[in-house]
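Query structure, 179 tokens:
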């Protein structure tokens, strides 16, 4: 099995240094601005809440374990992150349709409206940040960033680099814009 050293010897160290530096800058700037959007909605929803609401919207009602597995995080973390969303009425707990003893989490109408408000604000931010980019540049950047996130998820999950296709459940999806 090739070592980490073997894998980087044929790659340009300067390019790898530049890449890791740009990723570090991106992470810092993303955290500083929280990429929260523009206007009154700016920074009004934290990353964890956004990702949880987005997943429930894209995949529908599900239990804590399924939500945690789909996001690649621990069930206790999901439980802790969902509690304030339930308290504020953005998510509701309901009985599983087939097993009344089990609980599923579901986006409430209020949660759906709030998520769309935040998405709209974030779309506006992305439009402003990429102003002057061509559609091809935006598509390429999104595809490469998605690929990068998938590779990071694979590494975190302990999958081999070629196993990325096994990750459709990881949180690398790009929310589709409403028609």
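Result returned for the query:
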């Amino acid at each position: 099995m090739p070592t980490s050293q073997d894998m980087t010897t044929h790659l340009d160290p300067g390019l790898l240094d530049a890449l890791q530096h740009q990723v570090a800058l991106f992470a810092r700037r993303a955290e500083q601005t929280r990429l929260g959007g523009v206007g009154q909605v700016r920074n009004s929803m934290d990353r964890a809440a956004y990702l949880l609401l987005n997943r429930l919207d894209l995949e529908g009602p599900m239990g804590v374990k399924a939500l945690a597995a789909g996001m690649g995080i621990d069930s206790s973390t999901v439980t802790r992150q969902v509690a304030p969303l339930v308290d504020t009425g953005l998510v509701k707990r309901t009985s599983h349709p087939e097993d009344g003893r089990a609980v599923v989490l579901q986006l409430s109408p209020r949660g759906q409206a709030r998520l769309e408000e935040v998405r709209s604000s974030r779309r506006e931010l992305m439009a402003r940040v990429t102003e002057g980019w061509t559609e091809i540049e935006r598509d390429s950047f999104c595809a490469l960033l998605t690929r990068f996130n998938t590779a990071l998820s694979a590494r975190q999950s302990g999958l081999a680099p070629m196993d990325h296709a096994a990750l459709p459940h990881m949180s690398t999806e790009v929310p589709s814009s409403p028609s």
